[in-house]
Design a protein that fits this description.
The chain is mainly alpha-helical. It is built from 9 helices and no strands. The longest helix has 29 residues. The N terminus is likely disordered.
């Protein structure tokens, strides 16, 4: 039996080092923001050389985009409770947990402000975060149509907006943490807005 060897000179990306860098990027973003974050500071915080960063990402923006999108998309819910109401409730809870995360709650407003100053990186982040998160939630509406809980012509795009918009507005814009009863009310309003009907 022949053992395969890593070719000489090939970069072996150690998961524990990648995780340390990821945590350092999120910490730096939360403390100093996008504009003041530097590769040097991230490397120092992670306890690695700058070369470890450049073996993984070609630039500061690519590094931030990869780390923030992984953090965000990994928290995208894919509920399948058997009912639209149950799926919506799990979904809005997951959106709240994502936006209210102690570290991400400090990062997101800065990323939004940075997007106004530099639209191209912001567009990249929207593509890498918004697209996959919406794709993960889309099946819950499709299943609800199949069960007869939603009309066949339901506006799925509006439904996807309604899952996150009220929570984003309350947390990020108004900066007023909603309680569980607020999330329950969001679910009820989404059900009414989409003309949902109970299935026997």
């Amino acid at each position: 039996m022949t053992t395969r060897r890593t070719p000489t000179g090939a970069a072996v990306l150690q998961p524990d080092v990648t995780q340390a860098i990821t945590e350092a990027v999120l910490d730096e973003l939360a403390e100093v923001g996008y504009g003041r974050l530097s590769m040097e500071a991230v490397a120092k915080r992670a306890g690695v050389g700058k070369s470890a960063l450049y073996r993984r990402w070609r630039s500061k923006h690519e590094m931030i985009s990869a780390v923030v999108s992984e953090f965000s998309v990994s928290r995208a819910p894919e509920p399948d409770t058997g009912t639209l109401r149950g799926d919506l409730r799990e979904s809005v809870q997951a959106v709240y947990d994502w936006l209210a995360h102690p570290r991400f709650a400090r990062i997101l407003p800065d990323l939004i402000a940075q997007g106004v100053r530099d639209p191209e990186p912001a567009d990249d982040l929207r593509t890498r975060i918004g697209g996959p998160r919406r794709d993960a939630a889309r099946p819950l509406f499709e299943r609800a149509v199949e069960r007869g809980e939603l009309p066949a012509d339901v506006d799925v795009e509006l439904g996807l907006d309604l899952l996150a918009a009220p929570i984003y507005w309350r947390l990020v814009v108004r900066r007023e943490p909603p309680g569980p009863e607020f999330l329950d009310r969001v679910v009820e309003h989404v059900l009414r807005a989409l003309d949902a009907r109970p299935v026997d």
